Amino acid sequence: MKFSFPVTRTTTPKKKQNPQDLVFGTVFSDHMFEMDYNPDKGWHDGKIIPYGPIMLDPSTAVFHYGQETFEGLKAYKASDGRALLFRPEKNAERINISNERLCVPTIDPDLMVEAIKQLVAIDIDWIPEAEDTSLYIRPFIIATDPYLGVRPSQTFKLYIILSPVGPYYKGGLNPTKILVEDKYVRAMAGGTGYAKVGGNYAASLKAQEEAIKKGYSQVLWLDGVEKSYVEEIGTSNAFFKIDGEIITSPLTGTILPGITRDSVLQLLKHWGEKVTEKRFTIQEVYEAQASGKLDEVFATGTAAVISPVGELCWKNQVITINNNQIGAISQRLFGEINAIQRGRTSDQFGWVTEI
Ligand SMILES: *Cc1c(COP(=O)(O)O)cnc(C)c1O
What we know:
D-amino Acid Aminotransferase, Chain A, domain 2; D-amino Acid Aminotransferase, Chain A, domain 1; alpha+beta
């Protein structure tokens, strides 16, 4: 093995909860991965240690200027007992794109994937086995210089933590209500929209909170200049099926390059569907609805895989999509990607890695 990390095992293993009762992001496994960076040694001292609080000086850079990047992926338990990861090399590639943007040192992608694998292997019993459950994996990097000056940090820490998650949908896929955001923006050309960084999320909370107050579960983000072009749905990528053609925004710098998005595009092309990456306006979506051509809307991301949209509200105009029912394409994508992730069907694209 090219990378081998020392392991300090916990002396106080935790009791595991019933997987059906798990609330996303509230329960953590027994161990975590930690690695340091400084300019002399580069990334060094990777190790697996008991999960627990970390101690940082109050002046630590990340607390003040948000120099932080992260990733999110999952491990699944196949019915034959194998533990599987879905395209982890894509996460390793993407965190380096985020790192590059935030002056965070890049990490050898092989080291990153190996760290994930070895950590999950130590906590393998933390992958829940019940239907639709998984182990969420959160790698993140923080700037650790104890210094209040505004400049890129010299030192960093990478952590990887694990959180068992229950079924995203209780009782099958559920269409959501989405508010089209026409006041706040998420990203602008030249900004950090394409990077997975904490700062983007801090900036989006206000819109999310206001949408929830109005009875919507997420916002649909429009472009930051004209507030006209469709970009993303909450923290997911957005797909629209209009007149038989499935469209999504191109990766122009303001869109997060979702791994689920990429997988969906590949599958749709493989199935012979007409799929196009192009800019399109919310006006076009509403016109398609008016002429009976808006077939489906869905969001894609690691957490839910596919999230069908049943209702959109833009400037107080509400439209219902596909009678608030799950569309055929949404249902098929959800079934197929889940089957691949859980090793229930052939992995024809080579997306699955066994731990
Ligand atoms: C993580 C994320 C996505 C989805 O990416 P996946 O790799 O499919 O999970 C989409 N949009 C934003 C803003 C994100 O942070």
